[in-house]
Amino acid sequence: MKKDMIFAPAMLLVAILLFLYRATGPAVHIAISVVGVLILSVYTSSTRKEWKAPALEISMRVFYGIALITGIVVKAINFSAPAIVHKACAALFVVLLVVLFVKKLVANKK
Q1: Higher-pLDDT residue of 50, 86
Q2: N or C: less crowded end of the chain, CB within 10 Å?
Q3: Burial of 24 (0-12, 13-18, 19+ CB in 10 A)
Q4: H-assigned helices in the chain
């Protein structure tokens, strides 16, 4: 649970900063997303055996990956469809992050 108490707030901070694109700008947005990938990778490798809901854990990481890839595509070509997917996957990532964290908090209280 200690890892979750470090990871979830760190990733929520990353997500908030990523949603503030207009305030941070593209260079900072890219740097923050790389930090998010690093945090997510370290957390995944250290907690893989502890997953209680593997489908949700994997889905959360997939949504982050899709948001990252579509963000690169949006930057490469100006086309609105990947931008919509990028924003939707980013939002779904945050929702799953919060749901999984709350679920772990509730399970730990029992």
Answers
A1: 86
A2: C
A3: middle
A4: 2-19, 21-24, 26-47, 54-76, 80-109
